Amino acid sequence: LQNSPLISAPHTAAYAKRQRVWAAVGSVHTAKSCCAATASADAVSVKNYAVIHVLKMMYVQTAKKKWRMKKMNNKKHKSPESTKKQIQANLKQAKQKSSSQAEQYELRRLALRFSPTAWTKLLHFRDKSDNEVGGFGITGLDDLLFVKEFVTVKQEVTCVSVKFDDEAVADFFDTQVDLGRKPEQFARLWLHSHPGDSAGPSSIDEETFQRVFGACQWAVMFVIAQNNNTHARLSFNVGPGGQVLIPTEIDYSEDFGGSDRELWDAEYAANVKVVEWLREQPCE
């Protein structure tokens, strides 16, 4: 254009100006279009996100409001009768639980328990010979199944039987009464040993227990075998009567004294007399 003779300098300048203006206008339109499209897309995304967030908030608030209203309505419409029934049901459940715990506690206590000293003395007498040996359990007035002492009286023993001397038993009872004890503390627990491995009562044991203790309101027959197997039976002789097997325990929770084997040996020698029991087979 500059070399053309037909176009003057002013025309050239005007032409260049127009080209720059249109180029600038085109650039502006292009930029405006691109920015508008991008802005429009971003606006849609922002709008969609905002709408979703608002909807979520509205749903949560509505759900909370409905739950509160439902809870309030339940409280309003809950009748005094239903409330009373619920309270009674709760009380009944608590009472049953308490009763069950009390029964379990009583079952745990319903056992023939020995102090370590009484138990050791009983085993010492058992192991003195291959014969039976028997005696009475001494208890406290507040715990009649806890044997504090094992005491013997004069007796004749074999490998299958033990027979107390009647006069010795009477003297023993008098002594215990003089000490301030009641019969249920010294004359209800019959303890004896078996030389074999069986703690099951023999026919002689059953007959003796019924004859001697059958008139008592209650009594216990206890047998310990050579291998430490035990049999403890609590018998009730009032009302309809009945018998129940109870466990045997050594109770370390109470105070107890030490052993005195020399004194125990002297008691055994003074009270226990071995007699012959004729039979074809030796005692086992």
UniProtKB/TrEMBL annotation:
Residues 69-100 are annotated as: Disordered. Residues 69-78 have a biased composition (Basic residues). This is JAB domain-containing protein. It comes from marine sediment metagenome.
